[in-house]
Amino acid sequence: MLNRRQLFRAAAGAAASTMVSRIPNVFAAAPAKYDVIVKGGRVIDPAAKLNAIRDVAIAGGRIAAVKANIAADAAEMIDARGKLVVPGLIDIHTHAARATDGPALCLADGVTGFIDAGSQGADRISETVAVAKSAPQQARVLINIGRAGILPEGDTMDISRADVAAARDAIARNRDVIAGIKARLSRDVAGDHDYEVLRRAQEVASSFNIPVMIHMGQTVSPLSKLLPLLKPGDIVTHMFAPPPNSIIDEAGHILPEVIAARRRGVWFDLGNGRTGHLRWDIAERVLQAGFLPDTFSTDWTPEGRTAQVIDFPNVMSKFLMLGMPLDQVIARATANPARVFKVFAGRGTLNVGAPADVAVLELREGMFEFVDNYQNKRTGRQRLFPVATVLGGMRVATRT
Questions:
Q1: Cα–Cα distance for residue pair 305/140, rounded to 1 Å
Q2: Global pTM?
Q3: Are 216 and 238 in contact (CB under 8 A)?
Q4: What's the pLDDT tens digit per position in 104-134?
């Protein structure tokens, strides 16, 4: 049993301990000012007209600062010295929603926003919608006007599959995810129905004020007949497809209808793909005519990861090989596509306050082989490789 003196000492000690516990620990580490700093890279942000060595600081999922020599006060540092730091890549023509792991695979390559362009039509649109909704990055879907989606025998070779009512119903049920309509018009997809397929696609689009993306090249109808059906905001993909019905004539001149379409606000997109869409000589002649693509896209599929496409930075590198300046190549994968679809508004830039989507790329020097859709090989001296991706302020897994 404790005596009075011992009880007093015990009580005093307990009181002192309680007082100490209530005094704040002024020596505890303060929280970091930033969540992430991407340090020392060459920042290329065409939207901000910036091309310089800078640090990029991120806080709360937003770009907090882009300056030289930001103090290293962050929970995570990404060493980007000797690398390129660009806005997250936006790919407006993929089939990434064909596979549940498609979005994550694209994200690891630096793609922080994508459009699935017509993988499915009204009959099975719920499948691609579900993948888009579960994607970690911003994702939307273009519904194929052919209600059965992409078919080996041709999406709309049977014109009854270009079902206006079915497409309207599907869009109405999924308006938050469906951002437009895809009309594939090639000879082996639509046959001699190409004009009517596009007309029906526009009939659906007019009900919802959404764009139509056309898959051109090797059509039965000439482009001079098809292009006048396009409205401002529509997209022509596979713009470097060879004849018949290329965007250039035999003398290498851009068709007047192509120029008129661009003037009224139609976008022209690469759509690399693997079959019939890109041939080096056509690309060279179009670029020499001064008709540059508005956007780059991959036409990504799981199969394309092993041949021709590989990844978005590889597709971009093809145009370094063809002579486009680096900042213009970056613009067509970031700032420009951000203007095409509303879901990407405010993205495609590293401006302070923008969503913190960042791609860190390595521009390697060497001898790199690039292949078009006709197995023609070209050698370039530069190639972009994905190194790190930040999505919404958080670093994500990189492709290995």
A1: 21
A2: 0.92
A3: yes
A4: 999 999 999 999 999 999 999 999 999 999 9
